[in-house]
Amino acid sequence: LHYLAKLKIMVIKDIEREDIRFVMTSLGCRPVASLDHFVPEALGYADLVEEIRLDSGERLIQFTGVQNPGKTASIVLRGSNRLVLDEAERSLHDALAVLRCLYKKKLLICGGGAPEMEVACRLRSLALENPGMLSFVFQSFADALEVIPYTLAENAGLRPIETITELRHRHVNGDSAAGINVRKGCITSMYEENVVQPALVTISALTLASEAVRSILKIDDILRATRDI
């Protein structure tokens, strides 16, 4: 480092391992482990690299005029205290997760427990059309799905039994967009309230829950570990 300082070459130390891939993508370079691989093809180019200081006293490294920039972006979060900053980081993470879901599956559905209740009503109809053991399967799956809007109504301070009964009645009559409006404390159309969510969230939840139940049902016996005395 002493010789690099003499040559006025800037050195940035203590880069986190999880940040290396981000730096590579942003600057168009690749990591070099030895001088033998220190070739021009492995380097990135920028017009200016400088250290800037924020009002809070923290320091950042700013790259300006990158010749081959990657499709990356840096977001600087600020807050009055650590609690506010952590909450802002969680909110940003949730927003990016929503965008990721929409990128994978470009489809939005109603929120407020509407999709779960609609599927539950369809399963109850299938239970009536398929008598026997299969009817109990459809009925049990429908009961499990109704737990989601029931919990939502309970957390919103509503009467869950009355709310679920009204919500089920609306869906049976063909109002598939009806959901629990937490702000107004009643059942309204989620499309009109602009309460939507990525379809991938609901699909993934139902898929993973079904796989977990299937794994449990495949268990034939449980062997309890005993300790010899």
List the topology elements.
Blueprint: H1 2-6, H2 17-27, E1 46-53, E2 59-66, H3 82-104, E3 108-110, H4 114-129, H5 133-145, H6 147-155, H7 160-172, E4 178-181, E5 186-189, E6 196-198, H8 199-217
Antiparallel strand pairs: 1-2, 3-6, 4-5
Helix pairs in contact: 4-5, 4-7, 6-7
Question: Brief overview, please?
Answer:
With 229 residues, this protein is an alpha+beta fold.
Number of domains: 2
Widest sheet, order of strands: 1-2
Q: Biggest sheet, in brief?
A: 2 strands, antiparallel
Beta-strand residue fraction: 5-15%
The total strand number stands at 6
Helix content: 40-55%
Specify the CATH architecture of the largest domain: Orthogonal Bundle
**Coarse morphology:** elongated
Architecture overview:
GO terms for molecular function: ATP binding; ATP-dependent protein folding chaperone. It holds the Pfam family Cpn60_TCP1. InterPro entries: Chaperone_TCP-1, Cpn60/GroEL/TCP-1, GroEL-like_apical_dom_sf, GROEL-like_equatorial_sf, TCP-1-like_intermed_sf. It is a single chain. The protein is 48% helix and 13% strand. By secondary structure, the protein is an alpha+beta fold. It has two domains: 1-74, GroEL; 109-217, Orthogonal Bundle (GROEL, domain 1), CATH 1.10.560. Strand 4 (178-181) and strand 5 form a beta hairpin. Helix 4 (114-129) packs antiparallel against helix 5 (133-145), helix 4 crosses helix 7 (160-172) and helix 6 (147-155) packs across helix 7 (160-172). The mean pLDDT is 87.
Features of the shown structure:
229 residues, GroEL, GROEL, domain 1, 2 domains, two-stranded antiparallel ribbon, two-stranded antiparallel sheet, 8 helices, 6 strands, ATP-dependent protein folding chaperone, nucleotide-binding, chaperone, T-complex protein 1 subunit delta, Cpn60/GroEL/TCP-1
